[in-house]
Design a protein that fits this description.
Main location: membrane
Number of strands: 0
Structural class: mainly alpha
Membrane topology: Multi-pass membrane protein
Number of helices: 20
Keywords: Membrane, Transmembrane, Transmembrane helix
Subcellular location: Membrane
Largest sheet: none
Protein name: O-antigen ligase-related domain-containing protein
Helix content: 55-70%
Length: about 425
Amino acid sequence: MSIAAAADRAAPAETSPQASARWPLCGALATVALAAPLFALGGWLALDSHPAILFYAVPIVAAELAVIALAIADGFDMRAALARLAPATRAGAAGWLVAIALTNLAIAARPGAPLPLMLTSVVHALFGLALWAMLGSAWAHRRKSFLLAACAGAALYGAVFTAIVAAEFGNPGFNWVGVGIGITNIRQLGFYGVPLAAIALALSCGARGRGAALATVGGAFGFWLTIVSGSRVALAAGLLAMAVIAVLLPKGQRRGLAVRVLAALAVAVPASYLLVPHEAWGLDRILSRGLSGDGIDHYTSGRMAIWRETWAAIVERPLLGHGEGQFRTQVEAGMGAINHPHNALLQFLYQWGVAGTGALALMLWGTGLGLLRLARRAGDGERAAAAALTGLVAIAMLEGALYHAYPVMIVVTCLALLNAGRPEGHRTGGGALAK
């Protein structure tokens, strides 16, 4: 079947009034919303007996696979979607798959370690392809709903997290730094708080009355989670996301955004002191570390030493890298306790080398060009996606936001929406990634 025929067949669903009742679409939205809270609950319950559920983010990967299956049930055609990609995007994707397969299966020093992580990387890519294709066709009329589902999921995660922490208050053996509630370190709480605040407050700009109030409450909850994490990086990334929203907003709406952001922070900052079971949590930790003057390595929590050793390892194998799942045992500066260098670019170069990282960059080249044009056409959904994406990528420069499965799922969701293009009549979308 030709691409034109595939587009024609998919197009009626894009504008059909019955489309919102389709069970695959409803199932996909529910899956995105429930992924984070189920991950929190599953990781906590199974931490002692089945730690792989937490460390390999099994509920998140399962959620992405479920969305792919639901997309197929609603007409997703992988061959047609691949054919619609721009040649550079398709070439980058092919090169990336070849590079990561070669590195992980033939070069990695510990050949068994990369397999679950490589599978997760491939699932992320397929999830992105399926969501991009469906948001440009059968699910185009519900694009913003996927952002609302992600926002609701992060809020539900926060509720589950808070309930579990309250239940563990009297447990002397609980690990208040590692936590284990959908995160392996309290700093990662910002992976949920930043996109929640970004999406909620971006969508508040197009809301009125109760909708705007509810969105502001969501923003306050997102900032609360971010501050409770004790992460300077996450709080700065959250504020950067607010700046992105302001830049993309018409000038007349910026004052209203500023009022809602200040209101959210006015609630979140004092409320963060209600949940500080350990000195590694909360605003005091952010302020004490932010004002630390004990040298650059101490100020960066050892990152400079980790980055220097990671770069030396990259230089040893610049073309194809070392493979996934190798970092913990090979980079001594991490003291056998971390799985990534806390910098996304170094992470990709270490794992996949110049070949895999360059192919990934080629695959996303069209996205970069599309984002440069975003300011001229940004609606509520685009602003929310751009803000959440910016916040998580900013965190990834100093944390592991592009290593852990949940924030990657949110990043991929935002990229799919931003690249889907605007539906026009019965024409299939495609955005920056399409021919």
